[in-house]
Amino acid sequence: MNNTWRWKRNERTFGYEEFADVAKMCKAACVATGVDISMEHDSAEPAIFTKDTIRFNGRGDDHGETFIVHRIETDVEAFCRTEQKPYDKCVAACLTILKDNLKFDVYKMQG
């Protein structure tokens, strides 16, 4: 079964502090899940949670598409397929934080 998360931004640009605060919340939420994430599934580099970018994927075989959200974005809508891998918990947590704090519209599709 495939999980696809879709989101729509109501703003294309957020302030540095505002986005940095949300990135910190996302990082804490991902750590709390206990799921092993990194910048890319085949990378030794850690997941990214900065004032400009949130980016992560599951490690090794526990990966799907990389979850990426930028402070400044040209696209209003985006998506990420997680295939119900463990890092889906991190994606769900971050999108909930983005919805609550930056007013993202979030949709989960299963199929």
Characterize the structure shown.
This protein is an alpha+beta fold. It has one domain. It contains 2 helices and 7 strands; from the N terminus they run βαβββββαβ. The protein has helices at about 15-35, 90-100, and strands spanning about 5-10, 35-40, 50, 55-60, 65-70, 75-80, 105-110. Strands 2, 3, 4 and 5 form a 4-stranded antiparallel beta sheet that branches. A 3-stranded antiparallel beta sheet has the order 6-1-7, covered by helices on one side. Helix 1 (about 15-35) packs antiparallel against helix 2. The model has no long low-confidence stretch (mean pLDDT about 95).
Note the main sheet: 4 strands, antiparallel
Structural class category: alpha+beta
What general form does the structure show? globular
Taken in chain order, the helices and strands follow as EHEEEEEHE
Helix content: 25-40%
Number of domains: 1
Query: How large a portion of the residues is in β-strands, by DSSP E?
Result: 25-35%
Total strands: the figure is: 7
The radius of gyration over CA amounts to 13 Å
